[in-house]
Design brief:
- Belongs to the CdaR family.
- 65% of the residues lie in helices and 7% in strands.
- By secondary structure, the chain is of the alpha+beta class.
- The protein starts with a helix and ends with a helix.
Length: 384
């Protein structure tokens, strides 16, 4: 609803706006970071000149000029690009209400005040519409800048991988964009995209802990690069803590950003050995047999079939006993006495089972070469 007094005073103020602009700009330029020259005063005044005119038109005409919304949003977008904090932008925007209200009072005669006070809410509503537009434009710009930064980070990390860290210029520029020290020490985790949510949560936890890193999504596997801290004494253990519920492969630490592509390949190799139901990270150092078995599924299947296939000739109970004995021995110290103790049986029983296993497969697990082949065959069978 239009207010005749407010409308008349708004039209009068529209004709003489410079005094209000100057007084308002004095207050705005005292705010941080405007006081540091982040936005030139001339630009601040020009933005206010348009904004105030549009708000006064709304008060005079009783309807919102379409330009008010677009001006407010464009101004919010520009201030976001200039790095003005949102709180400072809104503080400047809300000074509009005080400046306009005071300017209207200055124009009012004694008989105008009662009706002017009755229209005070219209002034606040008009300014609030302007401030809402500022906020919408600002937030949209921040989201877009965030997307652009993320796109840039993704592109430079992909370039680092494609270049394999061989070009020092690419390494340097990738480090700058990603915020990583090119001389730092890094650990890499790779997970199947299906469990990408877990890696995203780990990346968030890494950032919350004050560590630098980068998460990269790809169809073949999600990657998390973490720059290891100089402390604690075992920084790799600290990183593994962030990944404790994420089924993923983890590379050994590498020195220098140029080595990260190599670390990605190592972590990817470890990630291929993750078995269904796994609930935590797998270090490459702990998965060498599985890594080699997973490297060529066809050869792994052939190996498992040739080495362990003959065990199908015996009953399930005997086969399970033989495999349990072999696994325990290969995972232990290599001592028959220790194997017998672990299985709670006599050493002669262990010797008999080894002999039976050799009879069926032709492999003597007590011989280093045969033991290595059997261990690899067991890993291949487990991955299948």
């Amino acid at each position: 609803m239009n207010n005749p007094v407010l409308s008349r005073l708004a039209l009068a103020r529209l004709a003489d706006l410079e005094e209000v602009i100057v007084a308002w700009a004095d207050k705005v330029m005292a705010l941080s970071p405007y006081d540091q020259g982040l936005v030139p005063r001339e630009e601040v005044e020009e933005g206010a000149r348009i904004g105030f005119a549009l708000i006064l038109r709304r008060l005079a005409e009783g309807t919102t000029p379409p330009e008010l919304v677009t001006h407010s949003e464009r101004l919010g977008e520009r201030r976001a690009g200039q790095g003005v904090p949102l709180a400072s932008l809104l503080a400047a925007g809300r000074l509009d209400a005080r400046a306009l209200w005071q300017s209207l009072i200055d124009r009012a005669g004694p008989g105008d005040l009662p009706e002017l006070l009755g229209g005070a809410h219209l002034v606040w509503e008009a300014v609030e519409r302007h401030v809402t537009g500022l906020m919408a434009g600002y937030q949209r710009a921040v989201l877009e800048m965030g997307r652009q930064r993320e796109d840039q980070r993704r592109a430079w990390f992909a370039r680092l991988l494609d270049n394999d860290g061989r070009n020092p210029d690419v390494v340097r520029d990738a480090g700058r964009v990603l915020g990583l020290d090119i001389a730092g020490r890094f650990s890499v985790a790779v997970a199947d995209p299906v469990v990408g949510a877990g890696l995203r949560a780990a990346a968030t936890a890494v950032a919350a802990a004050g560590l630098r890193g980068h998460r990269h999504e790809s169809p073949t596997g999600d990657v998390l690069v973490v720059q290891l801290p100089t402390r604690p004494a075992d920084p790799e253990k600290a990183v593994l803590g962030f990944l404790r519920e994420v089924p993923c492969g983890v590379s050994p630490p590498v020195d220098g950003l140029a080595k990260v592509p190599h670390a990605v390949r190592l972590a990817t190799a470890a990630a291929r050995t993750v078995r269904p139901g796994a609930g935590g990270p797998l270090r490459l150092e702990d998965r060498w047999l599985d890594v080699f078995a997973a490297h060529s599924p066809e050869l792994a299947a052939e190996l498992a079939g040739r080495v362990l296939g003959p065990l199908a000739a015996v009953g399930e109970a005997e086969r399970d006993r033989l495999l349990e004995t072999v696994r325990t021995h290969l995972a232990g110290t290599g001592s028959i006495a220790d194997t017998a103790a672990a299985l709670y049986c006599h050493r002669n029983t262990v010797q008999h089972r080894f002999a039976r296993f050799r009879e069926l497969t032709g492999r003597d697990v007590r011989a280093p070469a045969d033991g290595a082949v059997v261990a690899l065959a067991l890993s291949a069978a487990g991955l299948r």
